[in-house]
TrEMBL record:
Residues 42-61 bind DNA. The lineage of its organism: Bacteria, Bacillati, Actinomycetota, Actinomycetes, Mycobacteriales. The keyword Signal does not apply. Keywords: DNA-binding, Transcription, Transcription regulation. It comes from Rhodococcus wratislaviensis. GO terms for molecular function: DNA-binding transcription factor activity; transcription cis-regulatory region binding. InterPro entries: Homeodomain-like_sf (IPR009057), HTH-type_TetR-like_transc_reg (IPR050109), HTH_TetR (IPR001647), Tet_transcr_reg_TetR-rel_C_sf (IPR036271). Residues 19-79 form the HTH tetR-type domain. This is Probable tetracycline repressor protein. SUPFAM superfamilies: Homeodomain-like, Tetracyclin repressor-like, C-terminal domain. The keyword Transcription regulation applies.
Length: 231
């Protein structure tokens, strides 16, 4: 009796199960970027890593940009949105959330610039909604919600990228190449600093939130908002 080869092979001799998937391609892309850097990344390099032809990738992604967008999404979804235990102040929740985004980016330092170029904001829309609800429940004036959400995203990304851009990466120097003779005031400031990079990040986030909230009232009118932003 002859076995039915169709159980293993599809039409035109193609395997019934695809050799690659979107998820495996995204994972391979992140692995290449993490281990070899962005300069090594290309669709042919990903295809070689997966042991398939480059044309196979186009069954799942229209082009390099679409793949990079999915890579950016995958990295950011690694950031855990913390729970809000009863009695926790909203500022503490936002500090924890910002730290989680920072840690997710630091886990993929070579891919950090991918987030700047390719991360679509719609991937975080549900998180923004949850953030807005927490601000609303805490009595934060509605005109400040977007200021806080937009500012925290930009601040978290910018400060983390700045940390990654230090040469060499991982250096504990906050400001490199400081000469005590030419930069005496900055040298003293660095000597007096007792905060690690992570602690400085927390201080920056707290400072931003404190600054936004300073002088606000539960009811913020258009006039008071204009006074607040100085316009």
């Amino acid at each position: 009796m002859r076995s039915d080869s169709r159980s293993k092979v599809g039409v035109m001799g193609r395997p019934v199960k695809p050799l690659i998937s979107r998820s495996s391609t995204i994972a391979a892309s992140i692995e290449i970027i993490d281990t070899e850097g962005m300069d090594a990344f290309s669709l042919p390099r990903v295809a070689k890593h997966l042991n398939v032809s480059t044309s196979s990738l186009y069954h799942h992604f229209a082009d390099r940009r679409e793949l990079m967008t999915e890579v950016a999404k995958e990295i950011m979804t690694e950031a855990i949105v913390p729970d809000l235990p009863s009695g926790t102040h909203w500022v503490e929740w936002f500090v924890d959330l910002s730290l989680n985004y920072r840690d997710a980016i630091l886990c993929h330092p070579n891919a950090a610039l991918v987030l700047v170029q390719f991360l679509p904001r719609d991937i975080l829309t549900n998180t923004y909604e949850r953030c807005a609800r927490i601000l609303d429940d805490a009595g934060v004036p509605a005109p400040l919600h977007v200021v806080i959400l937009d500012g925290l995203e930009k601040l978290s990304l910018a400060t983390t990228l700045t940390e990654l851009m230090r040469d060499p990466v991982g250096s504990s120097e906050i400001f490199p190449n400081v000469d005590p003779r030419r930069h005496p005031t900055l040298t003293r400031a660095l000597a007096d600093n007792r905060w690690s990079s992570r602690e400085l990040f927390v201080v920056t986030i707290r400072g931003f939130l404190a600054g936004v909230m300073s002088g606000t009232t539960t009811t913020m009118t258009d006039a008071s908002l204009r006074d607040f932003i100085g316009s």
